[in-house]
Amino acid sequence: MPKIKEIGRFKIDANVSVFITCFFVSFLFWIMIVLSKEYTAYIFVKTNYTNLPEDKILTYKLPSELRLEVNATGFVLVSKTLTNSLQTINIDATPPKKNGRYNVGDEFVLQLQSQTSQITEQLDNSYKIKSVFPDNISFYLASKSQKVVPVKYHINYNFLSQFSYADSIHISPKKILLKGPKQILDKINCVDTDSITIDSIKENVTKTVNFILTDELKQVKMRTTKGVIYIPVDKFTETEIELPISINTSSVPYNIKTFPVKTKVKFLVTLSKFKSIKPILFSVSANIKNVDLLKANKLNLTLDKYPSYIKNPILSPSEVEFILNQKQ
Fold this sequence. Notes:
Blueprint: E1 4-7, E2 10-13, H1 14-36, E3 38-50, E4 56-58, E5 65-73, H2 74-83, E6 88-92, E7 107-111, H3 116-122, E8 128-133, E9 136-159, E10 163-165, E11 170-172, E12 175-181, H4 182-185, E13 191-201, E14 205-210, E15 226-231, E16 233-246, E17 254-259, E18 262-270, E19 283-286, E20 298-305, E21 311-316, E22 319-326
Parallel strand pairs: 3-6, 9-13, 16-19
Antiparallel strand pairs: 1-2, 3-5, 4-9, 5-8, 7-9, 9-12, 10-16, 11-15, 14-15, 16-18, 17-22, 18-21, 19-20, 20-22
Helix pairs in contact: 1-2
């Protein structure tokens, strides 16, 4: 009878156990033999172009990726596949000079096939490169110009009841410096942002918005492609302050006395600014310009000065009666 091994509640035939062990050992050796062989495959790499003239600019973008036909062992191909990330390599893009300078408008040809040894070194000599696609890249240089344009922010927002600006909205940048070919910069008058909407604001808001990169903007350089919007928010309360009414009578032969001699200003102010409210920050006057004082019954009042951080100022009363006395 065949020998039986007991393991817990399970019984395994000893011959089956030997067979399974031999099978897995054989499979492992087979995998190692297969992966140790050399294969031809295609891989992709990201590119970083170096040694371009600093005072010149490309008229269009160079390819951001290259396809390489390579020979490598199965071990290398499998391990690179498992990392699932593209490696970045530096490409020497030094254009040849003519008469000691780079001529704007000339066509330059970058021969990538001639740089296979440098590319191989950056790939840790793991591959033998057979071909590069594209093998040649043509490009043109243009004189670098610069231009400052405004950034236009597109934002819609609203506040919860009793909340509003604590101060003015801050945006950055308001303008941006662009560098690129003059013929491209001439087509750009501003930089627009994506549209955003913020509802029911009740606290300070900071939002980052992306610039809309048009075809022209993709061909120039700028220090950032995002803008920042900051909305300072505070809760408002209603209050009022009593103020004297002033009248400038230098242009008329009368002294003028108003009834009443004071008026009140009702307004909204943030809680953080409430204690800073003082009468000296306000000024109210009675308007007598283009008024027939002998026929008029009342004078309109004007709020000539008030703090920028208050909202919805209302005079009460907004007009007053008056009497005239002839100047001596």
